[in-house]
User: Fold this.
Amino acid sequence: MTFAEIQAQANLEWEALNNGGRPQITVGTATCGRSAGAMAVVKAFEEELQAKGIDAALVEVGCIGPCYAEPLVNIKKPGWATVSYRNVTAEMAREIVAAFLLGDDPLAKYALGVFGEGEIAGIPNILSTPAFKPQERRVFRNCGTIDPTNINHYIANDGYIGLNKALGMRQEEVVDVMKRSGLRGRGGGGFPAGRKWEAGLKAKGTQKYVVCNADEGDPGAFMDRAVIEGDPHSVLEGMIIAGYTIGADTGYIYVRAEYPLAIRRLERAIQQAHEFGFLGQNILGTNFSFEIRIFPGAGAFVCGESTALTLSIEGKRGMPRVAPRPRTTEVGLYDKPTLLNNVKTFSSAPMIITRGAEWFASVGTEKSTGTAIFALTGKVQNCGLIEVPMGITLRDIIYDIGGGIADGGQFKAVQTGGPSGGCLPESLLDTPIDYDSLDAAGSIMGSGGMVVMDEKTCMVDVARYFLDFTEIESCGQCVPCRLGTKQLLDILKDICSGRGKPEDMDLLYELSHSVHGGSVCGLGQTAANPVLTTLRYFRDEYEAHINDRCCPAKVCKSLISYVIDKEKCVGCTLCAKSCPVQAISGEKKKIHSIDQALCVQCGVCLEKCPKKFSAIACVSPKVKQEES
Amino acid sequence: MKKVTLTIDGLQLRADEGSTVLQAALANGLYIPNLCNHPDLVPAGLCRVCVVKVDDWKISISCKLPVKEGMVISTEDPEVQRIRKSTVELLVANHPMTCLTCSRDANCELQRVASYVGITQESLKRYRRSVRQLPIDSSNPFFDIDHSKCVLCGICVRTCDELQNINAIDYVRRGVHTTVGTLGNKPITQSCCESCGECVARCPVAALAPKESPISMREVKSVCTYCGVGCGILLGVRGEKVVGVRGDRDNPVNRGSLCVKGRYGFKFINHPDRLTTPLVRKDGVLVPASWDEALERVAANFSEHKGEQFAALASARITNEDNYLIQKFTRAVMQTNNIDHCARL
Amino acid sequence: MTNSIAEIGEAATILAVGTNTTQAHPVLALQVKKAARNGARLIVANPKKIDLCRHATLHLQHRPGTDVPLLMGMARVIVDEGLADMAFIQARCEDYEAFVASLADFSPERVAAITGVPAEQIVAAARMYAGYGPASILYCMGITQHSHGTDNVWAVSNLALLTGNLGKFASGVNPLRGQNNVQGSCDMGGLPNVYPGYQQVNDPKVREKFESAWGLSLSPDPGLTLGEVFDRMYDGTIKSLYLVGENPVLTEANANHAIAALKNLDFLVVQDIFLTETALLADVVLPAATFAEKDGTFTNTERRVQRVRQAIAPRGEAKPDWQIVAELAGKMGAKGFDFSGPEEIMVEIASLTPSYGGISYPRLEGAGLQWPCPDKDHPGTPTLHVERFGTASGKAKMIPLAFRDADELPDGEYPLVLTTDRSLFHYHSGSMTRRVAGLEQLNSEELLKINPRDAKALGLADKEMVQVTSRRGTMTVRTSLSQVCPPGLVSMTFHFAESPTNVLTNPARDPVAKIPETKVCAVRVDKIAQP
Assistant:
């Protein structure tokens, strides 16, 4: 079949599904949906449709982003706007079938919003809500709307047009388009993708490789998983275009073994791409041949570092290669020229080729074009994956898309870029999101983690938390990272437990700079960022911990005490009954007291004390025994 | 070989093109502190102690930095000093302070580096000390592996890989828990280790240390007595005993390398089983005798069996001069060519 | 060795045949592994899957005793495919036509049938060896210790000549000598047919030279070789033996015969550093000094003469061997033995041995000298045969060869082939290494390596004590189930007096070199009946 014939066939199928007169139910069954119970919802719909004899299409799709709303179900009923339902359960599924598919009640109380043509009274249009309005779905273009296991869905949505077009271009022309697009590596480093592709093309050697980094080791980051699970062909297509461009015949996708569904989706997609002639020998009738292999990684954070990753594929211990060294584009996998990009970078390539460099660069900033994807978490109302144009401010993301701080709290800091990123304070909320601005502020774009913290977060504890991660995940080969992160962590632990010394802040600063300047790889060089930025923006909290033995956020257990206000306590005994270590004594209707020697600062008493009394308080610094 | 000119701390040096800044410095008698560098091995760049400033803007490790014409290197730039000092302080803060009882005392690369960068009690006191508590692997009869002293320079791993191609050891675990270990982290004797001791000879600290390592009072250059390769050795002597063997790096045959027998198989020399006196069979029993008595008995007997009744078997184990005299004795004194030796075994 | 050890690391192709290099010559093996690591093609030809195979491009696992057909098969492919170095052959070789004629019998298919090596591997090995030079051949006892060992060596030499791999850097025919000074003891005329420097005893001119130097007349008749000496001891012709630094009770093939021969002597003098199993049979035992207790020289496998220096005084009353011999000669009234020390002996050696003519102690101070070193200004010879071969014509002979199987083949009664090798941790009869506690800990007993399939068929478990019997003797040993040996082949070292392997081995000798066939004999392995 020619590509045009393939397209025609795919369009036919897609049309039939969307405009065939049948209702269409889509359920987000990516890993995030599944963990929220999506499979039970699918099953409920299946059973209910059968039981009620309803002829409707039930399609499993990927994730469209709003984790807070999972499981997410869209229902497209002929004549109606598409309704998106949030937090659907099996119970609700049956209810929706009965009310909306059999009847005409869209059950507004369950709806997140509508999209597409038409309006439904009482349900807002999703795209006009503050949570969605600033978003620009490009990498996520198909996620949550197509069946990722059906290649025709992808083809019908402009899939493989980029490949077909690229195969008709000279390799230099593809490089040129990529360069003009301004796309920068989405793995976090931000190296211009076009220049990397150009280096791959120019590298000498008959054997070259393309490698897709889908290791995604940052805690809290799962956008690569979402792309692979929701739109695997976009990644394959990008890799095939890259392979054609640099003259490689083999591509590897290094995907962590903890992503079994992503691996299954990739396996299926690779098989389909073979069947359709997008992979294998003489792709689309050209002389170009390309294979893609999946390499499941064992989950070491450091294997997300490109040179460690290639060694890992070779079956060696994943440790970053030491600079000065040749670039991976010259000496990479099996010491051959290798083009290594992130999932999102590859996924971006097809649309750049299809729609042109100018279209891609039409959003974003001058030096950071296109969109950025973040995993927005922490103390915001709306957690989830978001895709926004580069240049949007942190404030817009947190307050509009994120819906502001959860539980009416106060914003304190936002941490971007995963464990190696930095914590930025309120004063920097108007920083635009792009590689260079975040770098200047002391943080990084990184893999796109974004953790929002409120006033109940202790910034020393946050630094300790991230160092705990980097210390464990250090590969161990170079001294500054291996022992530096350990020393930083030991000092932070001491500070958090009231053993901080006045000179510790200088030592933290000094060591952080040495770890930055001395470490072998990017992971080591950025490992101290959480310490440096918290020292820079939240120095008062360190001083309070060290000088006053006080944790202002009342998080560090060694520095807090729970005390009973003698004025307020009525002797209800609720606190005493719930204390797990019997630290609270007092008879009924008599004032209770907490034995500080026994108290383990679990805070249960505070929770149990009825609001109307509010007799228990958490204080820092710690009180002495007699004061309570 | 083409030479390039570079400047290190204001000093102009000529260096071979393709060499590294550290090699150029060391070759010109300039010390740049380093721990994981070894002249026999590919530079690894792991200890980060050899950092320098390049052309007044960039920090780089010197062991992997190729020399370039006109390059200007500073080894005492404040940033270099700071990074280097922190790095060494970190190592020392995690190292046991048992120097006086350590076999590498006064011959320890960590000590050398620490004293060069100027580690003080005051600066160290700021650090949280922690010394790794792992059992010493003493399974090998010739050397111990003490992880608490290991600085993870990787010289042992690279020696076993690059030079020996045995790969008995590699890194195991990660982060601060990284150690050098065997497949499955089993005792070294349960690995494919051949006990050549090449790693032990190169360990810059005492993480790999010979079980017995008396310091020799003198060393005597000689040749190994085992196989026909003829490795150059230095016999360490103390009193009347051979107490150690080192590979002779100047010898063109082995360039310092030795095998397990060559390095550790010397104890037969001072073994109590050694024959120390002639023995003569009397009444069916071998009993000690004087040289005169023994040689007279031999002479008397040999005198009666000259020619075809006599044969001598010389030895592939003794010197050329010994063999020459035996064949001369056989041919000239015993009047026969019945001389052979175990060349065929 | 025709070439030097350091050159091995620079070879483009290495053919290691009949050498378990990493075990027997560990430091030389570093050069082989270095070459392989740097991309050289390493062909290992060995009946066993030895450690070196880990680094090999190709392992030719031929049946023991079939080296001639294997190597001739490679030669046949080289000739057939036009890969021979005809310019070299024309300029420097003789008898090429006769040699080529003898290749008729060695088609890859026939060779495959004899050796068990697939024909395509033989072809691949031939192309590799001939196609990527310089190519170095390393061989050891796996080539020589056969009843047709000389043929094996000729086959090796043919292959090198055929491809012009002689007289060039990093090429050559390189026998790896087993003992520290086996090269030197041969050089020094510790052989029945030659004086020092391989000067024939039956050459009148040579004899006259030695007679005039030593001031007496010498026997013109070549003497007996080691094995023949034992035979003459056994039949009573030889009555008196002066045995220096050897332990034939453990090392001689068919050891029971050797022991009987020693016991049949009128008078046995053993000169050694320990009271060995052989010394126990002696009438007089003379205590010798070790290498650490005397000065002298050793000559290594690459012909490098190096200084051995005294580090400590001899133990007790022990004396250096040269001194004992000199004193004995003195007691017998001989002249010409009153040397002040080894240095003076070397002066006499140099004066009578052309290849050592330029060797003197002062010149050996540095890295030693590789013979031939004919005069005091000669720098030594790292590579032999650069311009001419040491024959009358200066040309090398190519030798037509025919296949002869091993002397003793397995049969119904003795169904397995036994081959012998060495342990990394021990040396020869173990008189030295077994007295080093650490080495003894690392390897404390003999192990019979046997393929798990054979073991299963015999109902044997790993580490089970078994009895091994040949036509000549029987011994007990523990098994070690191992894929190193293919089915049908078992292997042992001979370092352990408790399991004296050489009671089993076959003394059948090569007709020229008189070397016994310790690499192939037929044995039976039996379970030891439970009491």
Remarks:
- The CA atoms of residues 27 and 331 of chain C lie 43 Å apart.
